[in-house]
Structures are given as C-alpha cells and as structure tokens.
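Hi R.,

As promised, here are both runs. First protein below:
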Amino acid sequence: MRYLAILLTVLLFGCSQPKEQKILVDTSATQLVSQIESYKGEKPVLVNFWATWCIPCIEEFPYIMKLKENYNDEFELIFVSGDFEEAKEEAREFLKEQNVNFTTYYKTGKDNEFIQTVSETWSGALPYTVIYSRDGRISAEWEGKAEYEQFEQELLKVIEEG
C-alpha cells in the first residue's frame, strides 16, 4: 500500500510539470495553416515570418515580443523562421536570446509552394506579418518592417472586435 502511495505521488508530480515548449518545430505550410485555423473562434493570431539574415526582421522582433508581453492572453503569436537549414541553430540561439519561451516554427518544403499556401498575396519577402481575426479572416498583412505602433494598432483592432 505504501508503495502505491509513493507511485501515485511520483506520477502526479510528473503530470504537474510544465509542458516543454519547442523552439523551431519543423512545419509545412499545410500544418501551419491548420495550426492557425485551430484558434478560430478562440482568439486572434499574429503570424510573423522572419529569418536571422533579414536585418528588418531582427529589428522588428523586439516590437513583437513587447506585444506578447503587453497582450499575452488576448492573442496567439506564431513565429515562423525562413532561415536556411545551415542557419537553423543560429535561429534557435537568436530566439533564446530574445527570451522566446513558446513554441516557434521552422518552414519546410519548397519556398514557392509554402508561400502560395500561406497567402496568395505574399511575394515571399521577409519580414511578413499576418494578423487573423478571431473568426479566422485576415485582418491585416504586410511585407517589410513595421514599428511597434503599427503592430499594436492592427492587433488592437482584432482584439477589440471581440
């Protein structure tokens, strides 16, 4: 009986451990679209496509992390790295330096197929940001670097829609 009590304690303790978040999980465009759609009806989603070789991506990254800090429970943030395979470890290190503590993704598959599956209007340029409303429609999207105010303004539109 004592053995059973110890076993149950160990099992319960194991269940209470926080779920490990994975940095740079491989994702196809189809898997990414499914992930985005899984939040439909729950909360808005901001998706940012970036790479370590993209200076504007690196410059705007802190703005997006500040949004996450300020509005964490009100939207889902998804980062997708477009880095080359040989730079994947560098991307992982950059995310750690930025204190990213949630699951992020690494684009797999052919670039053109990935781009067209994600958005018919995206040219493939980085950075690329898409904000989905709670009902799953694209509320805003843009290529190129944005300032914090643009991110916040566009995000607040979908948060306030309710």
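And here is the second one, sequence first, then its structure tokens:
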Amino acid sequence: MSLDLEQHLTFATYTGTLIPTPSWITPPYLDLNLGVIGASLYSLLYLLLEPFAGFLLALFCMGGVALCNFLHQQNPDSTFQGALAIHVVCWIFQFIGHGKYEGRAPALLDNLIQAIFLAPMFVWLEILFKFGYRPELRSRVNKKVQVEIEKFKSKNGKAQ
C-alpha cells in the first residue's frame, strides 16, 4: 500500500496549485496542489493516531510528495507513465498477495476508510515492530488481529 499511496500522490501533483501561497512561506516543491493537501491530511491523521510513528511516516509522505512534484516539474510525461506503470503493478501484486495469503480479494469495499487511510499506517507499524518499537502495542495489535482472523476463518474458512 505504501507504493500505492506514493502513486496516488504522484497523480495528484497534476492538479497544479489549488491554493496560491506566497513564495516565502512555501517550501520547495510543496505548492498547495492536491498531492500536497492529501499528503498533509495523511500526515495529520498519522500524527494523531500514533505521534512518533506518525511523525516518521509524515516525513515520508511529505518527502514523497515533494519528490513527486519535483519529478513532475522535470518531466511530466515520464513521471505520469512511470507512476501509472508502478500503480498497475502494485495493484496486481496486492491482489496476488491477498489471494495467496488471505484467500480473498482486498477488503477495499468492505471498509474504504480503513483501506485508504489506515492500511499504510498499519504496514508502517508492522515495519517499526520488527525493529522493537512499542512491544506492548505490538502485543495488543496482534491479539486483536488474531481475533479478527478467527472470525474470518469461522465465517469463510479461507484464512491461512
């Protein structure tokens, strides 16, 4: 989902500046286009959910959208084509991964907010957990995930 978010932000840089701001207050490559506004909303949400992990992820979001804006300014056609190709490949791998490991399609339509906003944070926390970040939170999350897996297994019998 992380690469997928990056591609959405890349596509959103094509809107152009939506809210003009003075140049002295605008960081380089962060004019207020749809990509920057979207990355800012994601960053704010992640900061509210888990401040330290959210701060690190916000740096990636804002850095990613700045990179997308830079690439868009350098070569809009190549940036769009590259983003589109990566976007399609990521979706294919996402469906393959969900089919192989969960035995079902991604739950995009089951809970759209979860799929769009929370999935990147969940993946980010899983990465941080591998490095020993907040073991008590990891334990609580894993217990809740196991409960949901058991519910899914009893309902569908497909989770592995």
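A quick note on the second one: The CA atoms of residues 129 and 138 lie 6 Å apart. Let me know what you think.

Best,
J.
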